[in-house]
Design brief:
Elements lengths: L19 H13 L4 H8 L3 H14 L2 E8 L2 E8 L3 H20 L1 H13 L1
Antiparallel strand pairs: 1-2
Length: 119
């Protein structure tokens, strides 16, 4: 999950902020829409036990939602992303920028202005 003290800037994409399995599950949910654990296993080649545990953590952290679906007397859990990829990027960016401003104050703001001039 997104924790500022665990950001790995050497990694690519979402794995800077999420574990590789979390990132793969979120990407799959964004691309495919809501899914059951068995469907996620099929799409990602991640073992079912890893999918289930990771989804539980994503639900508890507020990045995924879980709803119960009853089909023919069988209970199925359906998972969906709570936020879009853009919303999560905005949340991560805000956390990082807030931390930098809190730590470095005016120097951080001065450096941010360099980036706004480039864009």
């Amino acid at each position: 999950m997104v924790k500022l003290d665990q950001i790995n800037i050497a990694n690519d994409g979402l794995t800077k902020f999420f574990s590789p399995i979390e990132a793969k599950i979120l990407k799959t949910l964004w691309n495919e829409g809501e899914m059951m654990t068995s469907e996620l296993t099929e799409k990602t080649d991640i073992p079912l036990t890893s999918i289930a545990g990771t989804l539980d953590r994503l639900v508890k952290a507020g990045y995924a939602s879980r709803r119960v679906d009853n089909v023919g007397g069988r209970v199925r859990y359906i998972y969906a992303p709570v936020f879009s990829e853009e919303e999560i990027a905005g949340e991560i960016t805000t956390k990082i920028l807030d931390s930098l401003v809190d730590t470095f104050g005016p120097l951080a703001l001065e450096n941010f202005s360099k980036y706004s001039d480039k864009k």
